[in-house]
Amino acid sequence: MEELSNGIIEIGVSLTGAELQSLKKVKVDREYIWNADAAYWNRHAPLLFPIVGNVWNKEFQINGKKYPMNQHGFVRDLPFRVIRRDRDTLHLQQESTEETLRLYPYDYRLDVLYTLCRNKLTVTWRVENTGAADMWFQIGAHPGFFYPRYRATDEIHGYFSFNEREKLVSTVIEPGGYLGEETFDVPLTDGMLPLTNRTFECDTLLDTRGTVNRVTLHDKDKAPYLTVRFDMPVLALWSPCGGQAPFVCIEPWYGCCDRVRFEGEFDRRAFVNGLAPGSVFETRYDIIIE
Q1: Whole-number mean pLDDT of the chain?
Q2: Where are the domains of the chain?
């Protein structure tokens, strides 16, 4: 575990998967990141790469060759090394190996930077194509956040608000975790979505319009608790056990799961990203403690 603090917030990051495992407000010693209790979900905030979601039949195809791949890729379980660590920034890196090339036939370098600025944590991803051919990939975040003052018997555990004021438009997730063809509206009341034991009976709320770029989690009294800010085309909101869990995930993605029965080439996947040899892709998201 690598730790970093600026006196206002502090983080703990595992070198396995470069996973954020702790985010605290120093003054009150309050933990915001889910504790990976396996009774609900045994992760904290995994990094999703080189895919997001599921591929059809657990395999994908590149140049006619099929490769096995589990949900959300393999990087979340690989070791990273520390490149730089100073007062405000932790820089971690992982590169392709003979093992990863058997699973995913592209040479790459993946950098993850955690930067503290007052009450804000910025997570930056850099993907570099270090090979000789065009590279295709997806990348996403999957942080879980404790509900403030959670009680299982409460009717409402908190609220979400967004830069959108009227509604979300969620794509149906079919059994097995695949994109369906239908969508449904998720109406907001005064710009807010109440979070109850029924909110995630559909499993995941998935808005792929690319118009949502801010999600604020509020407590039961509607006071802002934390905000996730991003510029990515897909937003997933999820809580396990049909929503009857003490935490919720806010997941900005540059990628998405396969559509039902998709068996095309990897570069035809929904929300896939391309990189020419020597090129670098960079994006970031913020977690702001309110």
Answers
A1: 96
A2: 2-289
Sign of dihedral through CA atoms 175, 178, 182, 185?
positive
CA–CA separation, 259 and 221 (whole Å): 38
Phi, psi torsion values for 266, nearest 5 degrees: -55, -40
Tens digit of pLDDT for each residue in 168-195?
A: 999 999 999 999 999 999 999 999 999 9
pTM: 0.97
**DSSP symbol at 44:** S
DSSP 54: P
Q: Which two tokens stand for residue 29?
A: 């010693």
Instruction: Confirm if 109 and 20 have CB atoms less than 8 A apart.
Output: no
Separation CA 47–CA 102 (nearest Å): 20
Fold (CATH) for 2-289: Beta-galactosidase; Chain A, domain 5 (2.70.98)
Q: How confident is the model over 46-79, as pLDDT tens digits?
A: 999 999 999 999 999 999 999 999 999 999 999 9
